[in-house]
Here is the input.
Amino acid sequence: MNDQLERQLKEAEHSPRVYFDHAATTAPCPEVLDVVTKMLKHVFGNPSSFYKEGHKASYMLEDARSKIASLLDVRSDEIFFTSCGTESDNWALKGMAFANASKGRHIITSKIEHHAVLHSAEALEKRGYEVTYLNVDRFGLIDPDDVEKSIRKDTILVSIMTANNEIGTIEPIGEIGAICREHRVPFHSDGVQALGAIPIRPRELNCDMMSFSGHKLYAPKGVGVLYKRKGLHLANFMDGGAQEGGRRAGTENVAYAVGFAKALELAVKSLEGEAKRQTRLRDRLIDGIIQRVPHTKLNGHPTKRLPNNVNVSFEFIEGESILLLLDALGFSCSSGSACTSSSLDPSHVLLGIGMPAEIAHGSLRVTLGRSSTDEEVDRFLDVIPLVVERLRVMSPLWEDYQQGSLAAIIPEEGGKDVPIIGGYDFS
Ligand code: PLP
Here is the structure.
């Protein structure tokens, strides 16, 4: 086994790298690079200027807005360009809270949201708002009944993500949105990981606001979108000029807005085929890992999950060391979200699904993309048992388990839906 790993490490020096972290970011695709470069070269005007260069930039910006609107089946004046998904989330939560402070100060969200939502909610708590953080089940699913039960007279916003960035679970947001509508409570959903991966039409999903980000969609970093239903009052988040209909100040990043529109057009066009293709690769990875590596379980829902997401826990070892060894073998993966990968705290999402901290530490996220192939999956399945075995041999926990002084939390045969001993306390 050791010889085999040494051979793989040597081979990796001469093999192409495998990028398996598409949930962290995607490389801008050639078509997007082409339109963005052309825009930067030829359309430099400020869209607010009253002369030809400005008019041209303004035309391109509005054209991008209307293309995005049409792909999402909403109105153009419901699309606002921002700098990233984080800004869209901050704006949705804080803008709603500030605009409605006199009506109420209660917000509902979940324990497994991205930090852009969670930390915005926490910032609002410091300003006197009250936040209910809903539990999720062991697959990461939110129960729409829990949302309904938590709605109060002073609830001014519900924010539940469309799909989770770590474990890929797709939430029942259409149902949650319908409940919010019935109770006349605005509903925001963070759709950053979902856009381009599953069909997204904010109106059909009963969403009043949705956040999106360009760099998860093969567009550059530095551009985001907030969909806001017309008529919904949202306080401005950026003060300054009268850009974006006077709602989001700051000279627009016209080239990247055009890039976003192109990226969305391509994503929508290839969605069905890519979703099928990536789901097949995803399931090959999940089944292959669980079959080849004992004491391993899948995190997230077995079927209600993003086509590109694999998240597994390997008992007795640390996620960080798996990443380092995989990196040396030519694979770029993640132990959780890119935003928390520099922290050694166990992921709030894995703790949120009831996973004991010691198991949460040994987790690995592999996220596929358009460039992912069967050959890459084969290469990964060849090396992962070697990686885990090497790390387990060095692990004191593994030694204790082998000697019978420590019980396993994940059964040896592992699986997609295995009970975890000591987990799932949702109180
Ligand atoms: N929301 C989710 C679900 C995400 O996955 C991310 C990024 O990982 C964000 C928000 C933040 O987006 P951005 O990196 O554009 O700020």
Summary: The first helix runs from residue 2 to 12. The first strand starts at residue 18 and ends at 19. The pocket of pyridoxal-5'-phosphate is lined by residues 84-86, 89, 114, 116, 161, 165, 190, 192-193, 213, 215, 224, 337-339 (CB under 6 Å).
